[in-house]
Structure formats: structure tokens, C-alpha cells
Amino acid sequence: MKTLGVLISGRGSNLQAILDAIREGKLDAGVSVVLSNVEGAPGLERARAAGVPTEVLLHKDFPSRELYDEALVGRLRAHEVHLVCLAGFMRLLSPVFVRAFPGRILNVHPSLLPAFAGLHAQRQALEHGVKVTGATVHLVDEELDHGPILLQRAVPVLEGDDEESLSARILEQEHKIYPEAIALVLHGQAFPES
Fold first, then answer.
1. CA gap 60, 63 in Å, rounded
2. What is the pLDDT along the chain (194 residues), one digit of tens a residue?
3. Residue 170: what are its φ and ψ, rounded to 5°?
4. Which fold has domain 3-186?
5. In terms of DSSP bridges, do strands 3-8 and 30-36 run parallel, antiparallel, or are they unpaired?
6. Angstrom distances, CA of residue 9 to CA of 12, 32, 42, 80, 191
7. Does residue 109 have an active-site annotation?
8. Which residue is catalytic, options 59, 79, 82, 109?
């Protein structure tokens, strides 16, 4: 069975979607470790409740981004991770990290990339007055919110939406497409040959 390493910084709702998909037999994988850069992140308790090992590596304990990323890589390799899933991990990854897992790092983002990369994508969508936004799962490369797109799901922007209501509807779609995208990558179907 292929194993996942999941990186979180917060509540871990996308982690929970992955764990649920595994439990329901929709995703043939296992989570071998959940790593966080935030002590007490609520997602750590979700992992523990599912019997998944957790570790906290505080970035402030390292003198540079690269040394922190080397430590993350070391922990993921110790757990023999096949695929790295960023699930609300609020840190930019350095080339050191990205090069350690080429083509094996996934991220979920609350917009239809390449639109509204970076922080506060939902706020950006509202400020730009778009009628449709959504969620994207992509492979991670050395640029922020960049890399080959695996799946996207559109979400309409409704009259009267605020950042909170729009975020909630986008998050519902993230929970659906993230496990689907992981399955595509694990089974070699993400980029079928033409």
C-alpha cells in the first residue's frame, strides 16, 4: 500500500477528508505520518484519533528555511512516504524540499489556479467580482501555487457572499477533489499518455 505524509498548520479538515476517503475505501492508501509546524494544531488531534503518528517541527527552532525543510524531508523519509500532501500547511517550501520529492507533492488551493494564488484567495475572488471561483489540486513545483493542475472544481460566487460563506462552499469541494487527485497520482492516472 502506498503511504502519504500530510503536512498541516491548522484544523486539518482536508486531512480529515483524506482519512475518511481511506476509511470508506475510496482511496487505497495509508497516512504514515502527519507533520505540523504549529504546536497544538487541531488537525493533530484528528490524526491521533485515527491512529496516525504525529510530529511537530517548529520552524522557529531552525536558523533557515532550508534547514527546516531538510528536517521535514528527513522525517517524511523516515516514515517511508510515497506522496506528500499539503493540507493547509502555511509555509512556503524551499527548493530543498521540492527537489526531495519531485512530482510527489500535492497541494489543494481555494481558487481556480492560476487565478488568485497566494493567501486569501476567496477575498481576492470577491474583490475582483468574479462570478465563478473554485478549488484546485496541483503538483507542487518551486513557484507559489504553481505546477501541473490535477483537478479543479468550480464554485459559483453567489449574491451576498462574504469571505466566510464562499470559503465554506469552496472547502466542501476541496474535501471531494483532494482524495480523488491523490488516487489519480497513486495509480498513475494523473497524466495519461495521449
1. 7
2. 899 999 999 999 999 999 999 999 999 999 999 999 999 999 999 999 999 999 999 999 999 999 999 999 999 999 999 999 999 999 999 999 999 999 999 999 999 999 999 999 999 999 999 999 999 999 999 999 999 999 999 999 999 999 999 999 999 999 999 999 999 999 887 765 53
3. -65, -40
4. Rossmann fold (3.40.50)
5. parallel
6. 8, 17, 9, 21, 29
7. yes
8. 109
